[in-house]
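Researcher: Let's do a round of design. I'm pasting the structure tokens now; please hold your answer until I've finished.
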């Protein structure tokens, strides 16, 4: 696993900050937060393995969304989401997250941050590619808009 350069880390932090702006004006921002966090987790888990880089990106985004989160709180969130994933499966959890976020400002923010998690290692697996489509559909993000978001995130990360 390669280390992230300081420039890449700064770009990821910028994406997280920019993604927060639209929801910050919404009273639903905090209500959406658990689902946004779970969308990122699900994308990291889509290919069956969560890399160190994905965990680092996930932790940075959680802090951006929820504020100062202790390591034990982060571990607790990961444990709860992992248990739900094991019990219900990826498809069912993605549909539940999509239902909770669809039509609201949290949907695009969640999709953008989940995309950044998946792109962190500069490669997208076949499973992640399918997951993008399924997550966008569950959140009712049109395919053209989902591809636009993915392109924007890729440009922000890799120039």
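Researcher: That's everything. Go ahead.
Model: Designed sequence:
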């Amino acid at each position: 696993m390669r280390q992230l350069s300081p420039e890449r880390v700064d770009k990821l932090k910028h994406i997280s900050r920019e993604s927060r702006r639209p929801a910050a004006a919404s009273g639903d921002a905090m209500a959406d937060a658990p689902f946004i966090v779970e969308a990122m987790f699900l994308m990291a888990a889509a290919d069956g393995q969560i890399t160190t880089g994905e965990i680092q990106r996930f932790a940075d985004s959680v802090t951006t969304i929820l504020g100062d989160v202790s390591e034990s709180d982060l571990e607790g969130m990961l444990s709860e989401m992992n248990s739900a994933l094991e019990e219900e499966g990826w498809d069912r959890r993605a549909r539940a997250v999509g239902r909770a976020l669809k039509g609201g400002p949290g949907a695009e923010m969640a999709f953008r941050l989940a995309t950044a998690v998946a792109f962190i290692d500069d490669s997208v697996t076949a499973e992640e590619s399918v997951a993008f489509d399924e997550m966008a559909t569950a959140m009712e993000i049109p395919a053209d808009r989902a591809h636009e978001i993915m392109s924007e995130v890729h440009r922000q990360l890799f120039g």
